[in-house]
Amino acid sequence: EAGVTQFPSHSVIEKGQTVTLRCDPISGHDNLYWYRRVMGKEIKFLLHFVKESKQDESGMPNNRFLAERTGGTYSTLKVQPAELEDSGVYFCASSSSSYEQYFGPGTRLTVT
Amino acid sequence: KNEVEQSPQNLTAQEGEFITINCSYSVGISALHWLQQHPGGGIVSLFMLSSGKKKHGRLIATINIQEKHSSLHITASHPRDSAVYICAPTGGSQGNLIFGKGTKLSVKP
Predict the structure, then answer these.
(1) Proportion of chain B above pLDDT 90, given as a percent
(2) CB neighbourhood size of B37 (10 A)
(3) Is the pLDDT of residue B63 over 70?
(4) Is B41 left (phi over 0), alpha (psi -120 to 50) or beta?
(5) Between residues B103 and B95, which one has the greater pLDDT?
(6) Would you call A55 and B94 a contact, using CB atoms and an 8 Å cutoff?
(7) CB atoms inside a 10 Å sphere around CB B53
(8) A105 contacts in chain B (CB < 8 Å)
(9) Which of A12, A17, A46, B41 could form a disulfide with A110 if both were Cys (CB 3.0 to 4.6 A apart)?
């Protein structure tokens, strides 16, 4: 069974540009979570999808971040326009109803 | 005060030593994950537990829900156990995790 995959693994963009991160969860997992770790801080929750619906987006930092999960399969997280403080590692995780979460390898975002 | 406190923050051990990492949390939870993050960044879920004790190979995790405390033990530690270990209770009603800052473990041969 394939695990959670994320693309790209690393992205370097300039301030003001747009970046889209993608997460493919484990097949059949209805729950999909986005987290991020910024430099020197602990990992923080961003949002949670159940199928295609946003169940909890209380962790999204501001309206420059837009997450979608059309069709309830893969998810995208767009940052537009990117700011320096958005640099960090963005993790995606998925779970079935048991809530045990399986993590992707992360996308390292560097905004210069 | 952080919702999740881990101790120690850094730990250096000699190969073969028994290791304990502690986690205290202040939020009400339904379950707690122990995660491992290697240099290079990928996160692996070691355990999810909601009561008692779980064992997987040389790893043992325990949780006391009443005391809001969990521990991760590594028996017969090995240099390949060197990683950051993160305690992450499920804080939200829908399972989103609240992360500790992690414990950086270095096991010397």
Answers:
(1) 77
(2) 21
(3) yes
(4) left
(5) B103
(6) yes
(7) 12
(8) 41-42
(9) A12
